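wait is this the right file?? whatever heres the structure
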């Protein structure tokens, strides 16, 4: 199953309407897919909140009030129908509104979706090549896949206070956090302007290699028009991951490579969330050991199946928390720096030789390009008008009929 199919089955899974085979496939998928698991948790939380709302009884006089209001609305509608013909002296405005409405409706059907108005297709422009910064957000929910609503509520309560287990009481794990270092995720976004784009990229890559970091993503944009001088005007983005102990040093090093345009530095302290997940993990591991002991003593097939299902659920929760801790550790150990680099149009370190070189060819090329844009725009406009003719005819006929009908109604009055 893919993610789309899994998300369509979330409600059926919560309501227990899936077959055993579908439920197993569903559980296996959300174990491996964090996005689908978070979607499941969100919908499960909404379902629990809805179920917790008590049903309210209607007021004693509700029916009488409803009947009175309906009668009042019916009288107002009759009065409105009586008044309408008298106000139709301005029928031209009404006809215009009707025509515009039909025209907008035809647009909403996708009539113009096939047109790229007047401009030729070209590569998407990129100013500064500033891409979206990758973000990572972890949310922890005490919910349990594979359980019904009542079971989930009960198990959630058991899990939160860490006090109830299948065979007895669970002792709170003796976890000492006094020696734990602060877990802080550092990240930064810098924009610099440089004379030589390629050299700057090379220097950044070499520095990342020296500090034993790695490059998460890199992209470069080169304009498609102009002379060789313009072709050298590059811009791009490179996202690097470096050891957190080298974070400040890396920022200073990058700022020295060019002119700093702007910078944004942030730190997210996740120590509290990290500790909570560690406690949850230890509690789940204790539950796993208890269930394994129970399984050794079970002799009924039905009991063994129930115990295995509970054991699989707990192991899923354990794996999710271990994955969360592992991802957090990686984000803490390796800080993220996103660098937007733009080459200056006119170098400040050397004199460029030919900004006016081949200017005649450039003018000729620009003139031909403009003519082509105009010709293509006219052609598309003609095609558009031809496609609109049937709609214009239909709208004209409808407007004529509507006008005639209004005139007859007004004349009768």
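ok assuming it is, sequence goes like this
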């Amino acid at each position: 199953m893919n993610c789309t199919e899994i998300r369509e089955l979330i409600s059926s899974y919560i309501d227990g309407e899936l077959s055993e085979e579908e439920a197993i496939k569903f559980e296996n998928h959300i174990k491996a897919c964090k996005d689908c698991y978070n979607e499941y948790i969100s919908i499960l939380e909404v379902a629990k909140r809805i179920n917790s709302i008590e049903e309210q009884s209607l007021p004693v006089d509700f029916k009488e009030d409803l009947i009175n209001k309906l009668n009042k609305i019916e009288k107002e509608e009759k009065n409105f129908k009586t008044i309408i013909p008298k106000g139709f002296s301005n029928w031209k405005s009404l006809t215009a509104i009707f025509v515009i409405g039909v025209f907008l409706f035809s647009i909403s059907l996708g009539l113009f979706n096939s047109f790229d108005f007047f401009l030729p297709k070209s590569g998407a422009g990129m100013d500064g090549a500033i891409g979206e910064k990758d973000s990572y957000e972890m949310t922890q929910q005490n919910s349990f896949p594979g359980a019904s609503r009542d079971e989930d509520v009960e198990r959630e309560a058991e899990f939160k206070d860490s006090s109830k287990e299948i065979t007895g009481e669970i002792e709170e794990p003796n976890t000492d956090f006094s020696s734990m270092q602060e877990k802080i995720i550092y990240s930064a976004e810098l924009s610099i302007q440089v004379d030589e784009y390629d050299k700057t990229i090379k220097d950044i890559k070499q520095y990342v290699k020296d500090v034993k970091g790695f490059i998460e993503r890199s992209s470069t944009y080169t304009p498609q028009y102009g002379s060789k001088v313009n072709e050298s005007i590059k811009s791009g983005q490179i996202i690097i991951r470096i050891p957190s102990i080298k974070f400040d040093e890396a920022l200073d090093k990058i700022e020295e490579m060019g002119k700093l345009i702007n910078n944004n530095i942030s730190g997210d302290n996740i120590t509290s969330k990290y500790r909570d997940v560690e406690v949850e993990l230890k509690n789940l591991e204790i539950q796993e050991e208890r269930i394994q002991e129970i399984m050794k003593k079970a002799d009924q097939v039905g009991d063994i199946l129930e115990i295995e299902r509970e054991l699989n659920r707990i192991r899923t929760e354990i794996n999710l928390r271990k994955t969360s801790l592992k991802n957090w550790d990686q984000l803490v150990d390796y800080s993220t720096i996103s660098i937007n680099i733009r080459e200056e149009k006119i170098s400040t370190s050397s004199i460029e030789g030919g900004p006016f070189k081949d200017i005649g060819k450039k003018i000729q090329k620009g003139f031909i390009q403009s003519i082509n844009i105009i010709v293509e725009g006219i052609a598309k406009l003609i095609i558009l008008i031809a496609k609109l003719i049937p709609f214009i005819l239909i709208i004209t006929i409808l407007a004529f009929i509507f006008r005639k009908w209004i005139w007859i109604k007004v004349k009768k009055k």
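The mean pLDDT is 75. so i think its the right one actually
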